[in-house]
Write a structure and sequence with these properties.
mainly alpha
Length: about 300
C-alpha cells in the first residue's frame, strides 16, 4: 500500500511539475532556472511505473500465496462436510463458494486495501504540501480526498442490499448454467432446452439489474469527485489575481487537484471490493462453519492398525 501511494504521489507530482515547467519555460528564463524542474519531471516519470510495477508484483505475490494456502484449508474443511452437510446446495453453489467467493476474500487486499490506502495517503500528502503554498487550496484538497472516501463508503453502505442481491443472482446464474450443461441430454429429450436457456438469460438479467443499481451510486461518487476538483480549480483561478501568484504557481495549484481526482477515481471500486469480500466471507463461513455429520473417532485408524500388524 505504501509503495502504491508513492506511485500515485509520483503521478500527481509529475502532472503538477510538468504544468509548472511548461508555464515557466514560456517566460523564457535562464535555462539553469529550469534544471531542477526538468530533473523532477524525469524522476517522477520514471518512478511512477517502476513503483506501480513493484506494488503490483509484491501485492499479487502475497495474495496468490495466501490463495494457495486458503484453498488447501478450504478443501480440508469441506471434505468432512460432504455430502451430508451440504444440504440443498448443488455443485454450482459449492463451486461458487470455493472458487469465486474465496477469490473475492483473498484478493481483497489487492482490490481494496492497496488502492484505498494509496489514494488516501496521496490526497493527504498532497494537501499537506499545498498548505505551504496556499492554506486554502491545501484544505480544499484534503476535503476533496475525505469527501470522496467517505462518500464512497456511504454509498456502498446504502447499496449493500443490492450487493447481496447481485451475488445471489450470480449464484442463480451458475446453478442454471450448470443444470443446462450437465443435463443437456435429458433436456433435449423432453424438448426443454429453450426453457433452460431462458432460465439462464432471466437470471443474467437480474445480475445486470443489480449491477446497474450499484454502478449508479459509484458513478455519482466519481462525478462528485470531479466536481470537487473543478471547484478547487475555480477557487485557485479566482484567487490567483488577488493573491499575486505567478503563472507557474497557478498552473501547479490548478493541475494538482485534477491529477488527484484521477487517483481518487478508483476509490468507489475499492470500497465495492471490500463489501463484496465481506459478503463472500459470510457465505464461506456459512458453508464451512458447520459440524461434520460424522466425526472420526479417537484412536488408531484401520490403516494404522494394518501398518502396525
Amino acid at each position: 500500500a505504501l509503495v502504491g501511494a508513492l506511485s500515485s504521489l509520483a503521478g500527481v507530482a509529475l502532472t503538477a511539475t510538468s504544468g509548472w515547467l511548461i508555464v515557466r519555460a514560456w517566460e523564457q528564463p535562464v535555462v539553469l532556472m529550469l534544471m531542477v524542474a526538468i530533473v523532477g519531471v524525469r524522476t517522477f516519470g520514471l518512478a511512477r511505473p517502476v513503483l506501480r510495477y513493484a506494488e503490483r508484483l509484491d501485492s499479487h505475490d502475497v495474495a496468490l500465496d495466501q490463495l494457495a494456502r486458503r484453498r488447501a484449508e478450504t478443501y480440508r474443511r469441506l471434505v468432512p462436510l460432504t455430502p451430508a452437510r451440504l444440504g440443498r446446495r448443488g455443485r454450482a453453489r459449492v463451486l461458487t463458494g470455493v472458487v469465486a467467493d474465496l477469490d473475492d476474500v483473498v484478493m481483497a487486499a489487492v482490490r481494496w486495501w492497496v488502492p484505498l490506502v494509496g489514494a488516501l495517503l496521496t490526497g493527504l500528502v498532497a494537501a499537506a504540501l499545498l498548505v505551504v503554498l496556499s492554506p486554502l487550496i491545501g484544505l480544499l484538497v484534503a476535503l476533496q480526498t475525505l469527501l470522496v472516501v467517505g462518500g464512497s463508503a456511504l454509498v456502498e453502505r446504502r447499496t449493500a442490499g443490492a450487493q447481496q442481491q447481485e451475488l445471489a443472482a450470480r449464484g442463480r446464474v451458475w446453478e442454471a448454467a450448470h443444470t443446462a450443461a450437465d443435463r443437456c441430454d435429458e433436456l433435449r429429450a423432453v424438448n426443454a432446452g429453450d426453457t433452460a436457456l431462458q432460465t439462464v438469460v432471466a437470471a443474467d438479467r437480474d445480475v445486470v439489474r443489480w449491477v446497474r443499481r450499484r454502478a449508479a451510486g459509484q458513478a455519482a461518487v466519481r462525478a462528485a469527485s470531479w466536481l470537487l476538483a473543478g471547484v478547487v480549480v475555480a477557487v485557485a483561478a479566482v484567487l490567483a489575481p488577488s493573491a499575486g501568484w505567478g503563472g507557474p504557481l497557478v498552473a501547479l495549484l490548478v493541475l494538482t487537484p485534477l491529477a488527484l481526482a484521477d487517483v481518487l477515481g478508483g476509490v468507489p471500486d475499492a470500497v465495492s471490493a471490500h463489501s463484496r469480500a465481506r459478503a463472500a466471507t459470510e457465505r464461506l463461513e456459512a458453508l464451512l462453519g458447520q459440524e461434520p455429520a460424522v466425526a472420526q473417532a479417537d484412536g488408531p485408524t484401520q490403516a494404522e492398525d494394518g501398518a502396525q500388524a
